[in-house]
Design a protein that fits this description.
The protein is α+β, with helices and mostly antiparallel strands and 265 residues long. The protein has one domain. The chain contains six helices and eleven strands. Strands 7-1-2-3-4-5-6-9-8-11-10 form an eleven-stranded mixed β-sheet. A hairpin with a 4-residue loop joins strand 5 and strand 6. The radius of gyration is 21 Å and the shape is globular. The two termini are 24 Å apart.
Length: 265
C-alpha cells in the first residue's frame, strides 16, 4: 500500500475541518465485536461522512454522502478502491434528518447501539459498472476531494437486478479453455453465455437511527422510550460489491466463467 492509513485519515480530517460538522461517535456491539463508528454531518452543505472500522467479516469503510448532488462514495483502504453510486433516499433522507435522528437516539440510548436485534436491515448488492477516470464528472466537490484524499481508483457501481444468479465462489481465475469457449460462444447445447455475478469479498456497513416524523402521543399512553422504538428504528446497512461475469448457463462458479475482462469494462 503506497499510503498509510494514518496519512489517509489526516487528509480526511483536513477535508472535514473545512465544514461545520456535528460529530457523533456510536459504540456498536455486533455479533460479539465492539467498535466505534463515527458519523459527521454537515447540515449547511447537506453532506455526511462515515467511518466504520473493520469488524467480523466486514472491511474498514469510509463513506461520504452528498445529498445536493445525490451521490454516495465509499472507499475501502484494504482493497485500494472507491465506489460511487446514487443515494438511496428510502434509507438516507438528508443531513438534517439524519442529524435529528442521531440526536433523538442519543437522548434515550446515549451513543450505544446493540446490533444483536436491529429493527431494520438493508442489504445492498452492488456490481461494478466501470471506472471513473475524470473525477470532475462527479459534480460534487466534496466527493472529488474525498476520493483524491485516498488516491484509489473509483468505480461506478449499480444494484444487482433482482433474481440475478450469484456464483458460488470468489476465484476469478479463468482457464484458457474456458476463455476460448466463451469467446467462441461454445456453450453446451448451443446455448449463449449469460451475465452472472461473482462475490469479491468486499463488504462494509454502517449503523444509524432512521427516524420518521413524530406524531403527537399526548393522551395515548405511549412512553417516550416506546415512541423512539416506533419512530426511530436502529438500522443496519450492509454493502457488498460483486464483479460481472460472462458464463455459460450450466456454470455456477466464478472459476468457470470469464470475469476479469468484464470487471473493468
Amino acid at each position: 500500500m503506497n499510503k498509510t492509513i494514518s496519512s489517509l485519515k489526516l487528509k480526511l480530517v483536513n477535508i472535514m475541518k473545512k465544514a461545520a460538522l456535528n460529530t457523533f461517535d456510536l459504540h456498536v456491539a455486533e455479533k460479539g465485536a465492539l467498535f466505534d463508528q463515527s458519523i459527521d454531518t454537515d447540515i449547511i452543505n447537506d453532506i455526511i461522512y462515515y467511518h466504520t472500522p473493520a469488524h467480523n467479516d466486514l472491511d474498514e469503510m469510509y463513506k461520504v454522502q452528498d445529498f445536493k448532488h445525490n451521490i454516495e462514495v465509499s472507499c475501502y483502504p484494504s482493497k485500494l478502491e472507491c465506489y460511487k453510486t446514487y443515494l438511496d433516499r428510502t434509507v438516507y433522507k438528508d443531513a438534517t434528518e439524519t442529524t435529528e435522528s442521531l440526536v433523538k437516539g442519543y437522548k434515550y440510548n446515549g451513543n450505544q447501539i446493540s446490533g444483536e436485534e436491529p429493527t431494520s436491515v438493508f442489504l445492498k448488492n452492488w456490481y461494478k459498472k466501470g471506472v471513473i477516470l475524470d473525477l470532475n464528472l462527479l459534480g460534487s466537490k466534496s466527493a472529488k476531494e474525498f476520493v483524491e484524499g485516498f488516491g484509489f481508483q473509483l468505480h461506478e457501481v449499480g444494484l444487482i437486478p433482482e433474481n440475478s444468479e450469484i456464483l458460488q465462489n470468489t476465484n476469478t481465475t479463468t482457464g484458457e479453455r474456458k476463455k476460448r469457449q466463451l469467446v467462441s460462444m461454445d456453450c453446451a447445447n448451443g446455448a449463449e453465455p449469460t451475465i452472472k455475478y461473482g462475490y469479491t469479498n468486499t463488504q462494509g456497513c454502517d449503523w444509524l437511527y432512521v427516524c420518521e416524523p413524530t406524531l403527537s402521543n399526548e393522551g395515548n399512553g405511549i412512553s417516550e422510550e416506546l415512541e423512539l422504538e416506533l419512530d426511530c428504528p436502529r438500522s443496519h446497512v450492509r454493502d457488498r460489491v460483486y464483479m460481472t461475469c460472462l458464463c455459460c448457463p450450466e456454470h455456477n462458479t466464478a472459476s468457470a466463467c470469464y470475469c476479469q475482462a468484464m470487471n473493468y469494462e
